[in-house]
Amino acid sequence: MDIQRLKGILEDLxxxxxxxxxxxxxxxxxPYEDLDIVxxxxxxxxxxxxxxxxxALNKKKEDIIKIARNMLxxxxxxxxxxxxxxxxxxLRCKKAKFYPSSGVICYGxxxxxxxxxxxxxxxxxxxxxxxxxxxxASYLGSKTERLYDVGVAGLHRLLINNHMLQQANVIVVVxxxxxxLPSVVGGLTxxxxxxxxxxxxxxxxxDGFSALLTMLNSCVPGIAVVNIDxxxxxxxxxxxxxxxxxxxx
Length: 249
What we know:
- By secondary structure, the protein is α/β, with parallel strands linked by helices.
- It is 41% helix and 18% strand.
- It folds into two domains: 3-107, no CATH class; 114-248, Rossmann fold (3-Layer(aba) Sandwich).
- Helix 1 (3-14) packs antiparallel against helix 2, helix 4 packs across helix 5 and helix 6 (127-140) packs across helix 11.
């Protein structure tokens, strides 16, 4: 359930297209629906403009499918992160999109994309997390652009695309190894930067912990840091900032 669906129900009731009992039937699953294995928060999109999302890791395939089908029935959309091809095939939803690199499955993304979120990856190995951020932001309704493989080892690749930094409302920078790229980007633009450390790197990278510390200790103001490999969180935050930018115009 989202704002548009809720408005539609109320307008149909006001105009006499549906009876009170029908409206109540459609609304009775607010604020959540108890399926024993999960309590689906159908109301979350109305409260936060971010719908509940299915995190697939450590969940049974049949449970994920049950939750997704219920979300589709009630709100006409669903988003699954850290999913597999097996889950996608089990859904039997031909119109759903599956992104194998990031493990995202989605259906019912918003068509009217607004603003601009720029997704930057330091290296090709960081693309799965960058893609997760991009798909999530796009699903929620933000227009996205990508700029991949422009890490600090070849800084000219970033500088030649400086115009893309200036045209975005918000920038997501995904980097592993030493995690220096967000500071470089933050020093080149007045746009808010969301830094995403990845677990990509050699031993002393400590599965992304060293990149996380580098980003947290950046001397460039205006950088926010999300958890290691958290492309989903970065995509959500970027979308919210992007929407605020549009309201201010």
